[in-house]
Amino acid sequence: MAEIEEAPIAPNKPAIQLPSEISAEEYDRLTDDIVNALKSVYDPEIPADIYELGLIYRVEVDESRFVNIDMTLTAPGCPVAGEMPQWVENAVAAVPGVAGVKVEMVFDPPWDMSRMSEMARVALDMW
Question: Cβ atoms within 10 A of the Cβ of 2, count?
Answer without folding.
Answer: 12
